[in-house]
Amino acid sequence: MRVLGAAVPVDRGGNFVIRRILPPGTHAVAISVDGRKMDRSVTIEHSEWFATGIVDVTVGRHDSETWKLGRVAGLAQGTLANGTRIMENRSGLIVQADLTRATGRAERQAAIDPSP
């Protein structure tokens, strides 16, 4: 088997792996197996991003007092089209949180009528 002009070993199950660094854009990848030639189109995105976040909210009630405490954290990292890598890590405290019953409209109603 040949991929992009290079011989590639194939295991007993017919599987193979090849790693090449290609610039952003669409590329025709030439594959040859036992004399049969194929082209596959591969698109490398101009930018690639990964993001994740977590919210931790604790709500408690003792006697007639209700207390709320929360934290939020997030991470984003990615590569711009020009190859610049960016990583952003943020965290903070939640200063106000509202507990609402899940009705399908609770988020909309809380945004319209926020509690003091």
Query: How is the largest sheet built, in terms of strand order?
Result: 2-1-3-4
Helix fraction bin: under 10%
Number of strands: 7
Using the CA coordinates, give the radius of gyration.
Answer: 26 Å
- Main beta sheet strand tally, sense and closure: 4 strands, antiparallel
Structural class, please? Answer: mainly beta
Shape: elongated
**Beta-strand content:** over 45%
Structure description:
The strands form two sheets. A four-stranded antiparallel beta sheet has the order 2-1-3-4, with no helix packed on it. Strands 5-6-7 form a three-stranded antiparallel beta sheet, with no helix packed on it. The protein has one helix at 106-112, and strands spanning 2-3, 6-7, 25-33, 36-44, 48-62, 65-79, 85-94. The chain starts with a strand and ends with a helix. A hairpin with a 5-residue loop joins strand 6 (65-79) and strand 7. It is mostly beta strands.
Key traits:
mainly beta, 116 residues, 4-stranded antiparallel sheet
Compile the SSE list and pairings.
Blueprint: E1 2-3, E2 6-7, E3 25-33, E4 36-44, E5 48-62, E6 65-79, E7 85-94, H1 106-112
Antiparallel strand pairs: 1-2, 1-3, 3-4, 5-6, 6-7
